[in-house]
Amino acid sequence: MRKLIALLASSLFVVSFSIGALAAQPVEKDWTLLVYLNGDNDLDGFGATNIKQMETVGSTNNLNIVVQWASESAGTTKRLLVQKASDPSTVVSSPTSPILADIGKTDMGDWKNLVEFIRWGVQNYPAKHYMIDVWDHGAGWHSIQAMNAGGNKHTFHATDISWDDNSGNYITTEQLGQAMSQAAQIIGHKVDVYGSDACLMAMAEVANEMADSVSYFVGSQETEPGPGWPYGDWLSQWANTAGATSDVVSKTLVDAYVKSYQTGGSNATQGTSEVTFAAYDMSKLADLDTAIAHLGKEIRSMNATDKEKLFNTAKTVQNFTDADYGDLLDFMSLISAAQVRSVAPQVVSEVQAAANAMIIGNADTSQFARAKGMSIWLPTDPSTYASNSARYKGLKFNLASDWGSTLDFLLQGASCRL
Questions:
Q1: Following DSSP, what letter does each residue of 320-369 receive, concatenated?
Q2: Burial label, 43 (beta-carbon count in 10 A; 0-12, 13-18, 19+)
Q3: Cα separation of 224 and 133, whole Å?
Q4: CB proximity list for 164: less than 8 A, separation 6 or greater
Q5: pTM across the whole model
Q6: Euclidean distance between the first and the last CA atom of the chain, given in angstroms as a whole number
Q7: Cα–Cα distances in angstroms (integers) from residue 361 to residues 146, 153, 247, in the given order
Q8: What is the rounded CA–CA span in Å between residue 98 and residue 210?
Q9: Radius of gyration (Cα) for the chain, nearest Å?
């Protein structure tokens, strides 16, 4: 009898445990936005501001907004499910969303911690579609000297993305690609949208590192003002768009970002600054790489006169905070205008068509009217080239296009002309 009672009790426990476990299973939503917010640096104060912007909308029936928030001032890293504030119009000193976990000091400059956050987010907040947002300083694919977040003349050495001042580490462009590759494996399909809420990341070189693991890519060619993305404006539009697809989410951000800084615009919710923003359809990237490879072959076979003309043309391309980050489509327009005879017009047209097919959204303010959405490495200073060329040869963009060999050719003997 005791055995029977014990067996029945055990069975009831198993049944009740199973029912409880089933009840605890998270509900799959349409989207999950995972924000890797690295405030372990001088951008710390903007982190809380951006989360409070998110709280004007909050997670919805169709969208999870999940943040890993490292704060230098707080000395810790927290995970939050962003929920709409009870009174979004009230200014509060800090975010009010529930803290899901406090994981202590975390090296946000270690790409493996980005992957671990993605894994945790996917397990706990499953969705049909995922957007990953890496929030912090950015520098494109290599290091730069740049102004700090306050915009004064103090400069600091910056490189790649997600700089953690506590550890001294950052995520390299190559590691960012590795992180997105692992994210795609965790999700079970390509990352639907990847975005850098960081400076200078809208580059062919950066996009190529995640070509096999990301469907859409968003970012800025130029430096971003301290407030970064206008999360309240953008998320409000997203939440009000039924069945929002990856391209719509991406293009909505392009529009909201630039409007939020537009001089004289009614939507200039973040002040006025000269900015750029673009969105890419990554399925078109291979065609662009092939077109640039064809262009490179033309350039490397040109005569000395045309080489000189092309080199001088490269020095006038629309560039950004780092002078060797040039706008690809502006470069093509200038080649056509300069009539560099060694480059066949159809080769330039091939690059233009491929780039325009890939860039599904682009907006900018007046200072950057020649910015068409994608930067490419275009150094005209031999010392800049020499200090970065070895690493460049290993980037996926170079392996696909051989652009490094084209730069080798253009910069041969260039010191006498600078």
A1: -SSTTEEEHHHHHHHHHHHT-TTS-HHHHHHHHHHHHHHEEEEEE-GGGT
A2: buried
A3: 14
A4: 38, 40, 41, 70, 107, 108, 109, 110, 170
A5: 0.90
A6: 97
A7: 26, 32, 9
A8: 32
A9: 24
Q: What is the pLDDT of residues 281-337, one digit of tens each?
A: 999 999 999 999 999 999 999 999 999 999 999 999 999 988 899 999 999 999 999
327 bridge partner residues:
375
Instruction: Return the closest-CA partner of residue 406 out of 378, 374, 373.
Output: 378
Report d(CA 166, CA 73) in Å as an integer: 11
Both structure tokens of 156? 């600091």
- DSSP-derived 3-state class of residue 389: helix
pLDDT of residue 264: 60
Q: In the chain, where are the structural domains located?
A: 29-283, 286-417
DSSP state for residue 212 in the 8-state scheme: T
Q: Summarize the confidence of residues 140-145 as an average pLDDT.
A: 82
Q: Cα angle vertex 227, ends 161, 321, to 5°?
A: 55
Q: Which amino acid is at 265?
A: G
- Cα dist from 71 to 65, 68, 228, whole Å: 18, 10, 16
| Topology classification of domain 29-283 | Rossmann fold (3.40.50)
Tell me the pLDDT band of 22, cut-offs 50, 70 and 90.
very low
Residue of 213, 222, 206, 191 whose CA lies nearest to 397: 206
Query: Residues 80, 85, 89, 94: is their CA dihedral positive or negative?
Result: negative
Query: In 72-149, at which residue ranges do the beta strands (DSSP E only) sit?
Result: 76-81, 99-102, 127-135, 138-147
Phi and psi of 276, rounded to 5°? Answer: -135, 155
